[in-house]
Design goal:
The protein is of the alpha/beta class. Helix content is about 45%, strand content about 15%.
Length: about 375
């Protein structure tokens, strides 16, 4: 197949999943064309089946904000026409699904029929999409897609509850590349951070309020009162300054390191003993899956799609949002040296169920299904 993938090229989960999917499809012999405003973060190696098409965003005095959606739609039209794409797969409803609809209508005037698959990832539905300014466009764009997928049952349920969706939504979960995300021998790194064999806790996120990074710091503060421990915070974002202030307030600065954004987060996860994800909402929890693939058990909230990934009492524990005391109790259970090996083993076993070789065929089959359906409709007409 000749597939166009539209995504955000950033560190966010939707961009990561889209990029990894495209790389996997290219390895299987499909031709994959990424269409976005800059090269995706994880698109860092050469493959003869991978192509990148940059969306040209030009500034004019008339525009306070350049109309990216129009530029994106125009680029989709260009790539579909000249690269002869079979299908467009857009990740994240805003603005990609609406831009794809516009491109589809333009292409139809040239006698070109292009099916569009839209994948919903989370905040495009649970946060941005619910905004009254965007809701009509989100609803319309989803319903006009030829195929729709969501990364968890919870996100599918949320979408039907909050939008007037008439399309069937297929759940295809996020996935992991176990050839990359696996425990590596980084004992020297662990020794440098934890010279006295302290427990090492890790959190990765974009430091937005919904991630509740302050809860990570409070749980860590409680844990270090009971056992020697260190905390690594990976990522950056609007809450960074507040978290630094909280560390100073609690007197934990000497035991916490801010590592900023990292491309090779698996190297950090390889030396971790515990991963904490206390988010207010997660449609799936890709960062938790990456940790589990590196044999790191997870303390998480029981919200969104997290219970579909983190198995309570086996791969880690689930707690109510904001219940720092329960998270602390569960963290200490996992970090007990008699319990930790079992939780680590269970985390890896669970991660293997989401290996890309298991999930990618679901997308391939869905593409074939959508192509067949659109072909049948065209024949009827």
């Amino acid at each position: 197949m000749n597939i166009g993938i539209v995504c955000y090229p950033t560190f966010g989960g939707s961009g990561v999943v889209a990029t990894e999917l495209g790389i996997g499809l290219a390895k299987e012999g499909h031709r994959v064309h990424f269409i976005t405003y800059s090269q995706p973060t994880r698109l860092s190696f050469f493959n003869e089946n991978l192509f990148y098409h940059e969306v040209d965003i030009r500034s004019y005095p008339l525009f306070v904000y350049p109309p990216y959606e129009l530029a994106l739609a125009s680029k989709m039209v260009d790539v579909v026409k000249y690269e002869k794409l079979d299908l467009l797969h857009v990740h994240y409803a805003i603005p990609h699904a609406s831009a794809a609809y516009m491109a589809k209508q333009i292409l139809a005037t040239h006698g070109i029929k292009i099916p569009v698959v839209t994948t919903l990832h989370g905040t495009d539905i649970t946060l941005v999409g619910k905004d009254a300014s965007y809701e009509p466009v989100v609803t319309f764009s989803i319903n006009q897609s030829d195929g729709v997928t969501a990364v968890s049952d919870d996100l599918k349920k949320d979408t039907y509850e909050h939008f007037d969706i008439t399309k069937d939504i297929r759940v295809i979960p996020n996935f992991i590349d176990l050839s990359r995300f696996k425990k590596q021998k980084k004992e020297h790194f662990k020794k440098a951070i934890c010279p006295n064999d302290e427990a090492l806790i890790v959190h990765t996120s974009n430091f937005r309020k919904v991630k509740r990074v302050d809860d990570v710091v409070r749980v860590f503060n409680n844990v270090r009162r009971e056992i020697p421990a260190k905390l690594l915070l990976v990522g950056d974002g609007p809450e960074r300054k507040n978290i630094e202030s909280l560390c100073r307030e609690l007197g934990t600065c000497d035991d916490i390191r801010f590592l900023g954004k990292l491309d090779q987060v698996e190297e950090v996860l390889s030396v971790a003993d515990l991963f904490i994800m206390p988010s207010e909402k997660e449609s799936f929890g890709l960062a938790a899956l990456e940790a589990m693939a590196c044999e790191v058990p997870v303390i998480s909230t029981n919200t969104g799609g997290l219970p579909e990934l983190n198995v309570h009492g086996e791969t880690g524990f689930l707690s109510n949002v904001g219940d720092v005391e329960d998270m602390t109790k569960n963290a200490l259970i996992i970090l007990d040296k008699e319990n930790l090996p079992r939780f680590k083993e269970n985390a890896l076993t669970r991660a293997k169920q989401f290996e890309i070789s298991r999930i990618m065929p679901l997308y391939e089959a869905f593409y074939e299904e959508i192509l067949e359906q659109t072909s049948s409709v065209q024949k009827i007409r």
